[in-house]
Specification:
The protein has 317 residues and is α/β, with parallel strands linked by helices. It has ten helices and seven strands. 30% of the residues are buried.
């Protein structure tokens, strides 16, 4: 009996250590898209460009590339954390293991490019190191997270597509020549204006409301809907009123979201989307969970069952 009692403190100590270890471990964020910016260091415009580029690359090659930013991963190492996220998200196709994960941790000043087995011959450890040192690190040191992440991802894509280097296309340059466009006031009967207006404003208005109410995805919809608010109303109300309407949208949308972000139900919805992938807002259920094809109408993103063998490279700035 005494022998068993002597073992109790030791067992309790082991259980306590295991409990502390489980608490201190950094959680893997929910996979909500090709770019998961939990550290909030990437602007909506850059996130939209990255998502489009990664989607186009996957459609062309089958390779799955994802970007993750988290504020800190202490006490985990960047290598262990990247592998944990990679295996949890299962990036790449099963059997091909053609996934890539870019992790940026701003508070720890760490980053890593984690590469699946199938892409290691093309995206070697040395290549990943060069991208980190020569492309990403200088931008991060200057505080340009947008440029660093975007240029790093484009360098990865260029290497995987056999281009070998970052394309020299301008980031957001203007075209060499501008076509002259003349707008005229709409010459439509009032009945047609009302019908077309109900159709056009009904659609873009619905997506605008969804964007305002939905955390995360809402900022992507904000940028996405700007061209629609800039062009479609011209056929109904003419160019001058459309300019006023567009300005109202550009200014009013962020103000509405910022005001909603202060409410308790909005914060709870944001937490649910991040942790569970679904949230109930105003009686409607919003989901970022992917369907069987790997994507949902909300822009969800899912890995295909790939794995990583620890290949890649890490860096700091």
């Amino acid at each position: 009996m005494r022998r068993h009692l002597r073992r109790v403190p030791g067992i309790a100590l082991l259980l306590a250590c295991a409990s502390v270890a489980s608490v201190s471990a950094v959680d893997v964020p929910y996979l909500t898209g090709r770019v998961v910016d939990d550290a909030n260091i990437i602007t909506p415009d850059t996130r939209a460009r990255l998502t489009a580029a990664l989607k186009a690359h996957e459609h062309a090659t089958g390779n799955q590339i994802a970007v993750l930013t988290v504020p800190t991963i202490q006490p985990d190492s960047i290598e262990d954390y990247a592998v944990k996220v990679f295996e949890s998200w299962k990036l790449g196709q099963k059997g091909k293991d053609n996934g890539v994960l870019v992790v940026v941790v701003p508070q720890d000043r760490k980053m890593r490019i984690e590469v699946g087995y199938g892409l290691e011959p093309t995206l070697t450890d040395g290549t990943c190191g060069q991208i980190i040192r020569n492309v990403m690190t200088p931008q991060f040191k200057a505080g340009n997270y947008d440029n660093g992440v975007e240029d790093g991802v484009r360098a990865i894509i260029a290497r995987l597509e056999g281009k070998g280097e970052i394309p020299n296309a301008p980031r957001a340059g203007a075209p060499s020549g501008w076509a002259t466009v003349h707008f005229h006031s709409p010459d439509l009967p009032w009945a047609q204006r009302i019908l077309f207006g109900a159709f056009i404003f009904g659609i873009i208005g619905l997506f605008t409301v969804i964007g305002v109410l939905t955390p995360g995805l809402g900022w992507f919809l904000y940028v996405f809907l700007i061209p629609f608010w800039a062009m479609f109303p011209i056929a109904i109300i003419g160019p001058e009123p459309t300019v006023v309407l567009l300005a109202t949208y550009i200014i009013g949308y962020p103000i509405a979201k910022l005001l909603l972000a202060r409410t308790e139900w909005y914060r709870n919805a944001a937490k649910d989307l991040k942790r569970k992938g679904t949230a109930s807002i105003g009686g409607f259920t919003f989901s970022t969970s992917p369907g069987s094809s790997g994507f949902s109408s909300g822009g969800g993103f899912s890995g295909g069952g790939g794995s990583s063998g620890g290949g890649g490279s890490s860096g700091s700035w």
